Here is the input.
Amino acid sequence: MREDLQHPRASLTGSLLLAHPSLRDPNFKRTVVLMTADGADGSMGVVLNRPRKQRLGEMGGVFALTQLAGVPVYHGGPVQPEQLILAAWQRRQQGFQLHLGIEPDRAISLQAEQNVQVRAYLGYAGWTAGQLQAELKGNTWIVADAPDDLFEQPGDASLWRRSLAREGTEWRLLAEEPEDPDRN
Here is the structure.
């Protein structure tokens, strides 16, 4: 097991939380959460692998008439699921830059730039002060580094398997287990 999995980092911002294979909470079962904030007051992130199979333009309203109409929509988490959060990722030479909670005009201008992907999230994942640390001590989550190509990978259920498998042989075996052991 990697050392950083045993001892949580000072801040999880920019890290991935991979749901432990035994996590059964339907809000987080087999999810990949990108941590966008982590501090003394609490933590938040967005679930990356729960697509709604819907585009912004299909939601109606002003998005149907903009360049954002084709942006994919994801379930971002169980907190404020009616809140729409626009995010853009720009691939850099090393890593990526995240723009979270941006206005539609800013999303349109970023979308026009090279190596930028825009996604929309309904809701987010949030933890009160100390809650996430307690879950980490209880081995609810595996903390992982976000790979440089994270947003070039499909943001679907397979993202959890691929991300967990990157963490080593033991995790790869667990990632490949069927969701329902009776179907093994």
Summary: Helices lie at 3-6, 104-111, 131-137, 158-165, 169-176. The first strand starts at residue 16 and ends at 19. The chain has one domain: 3-183.
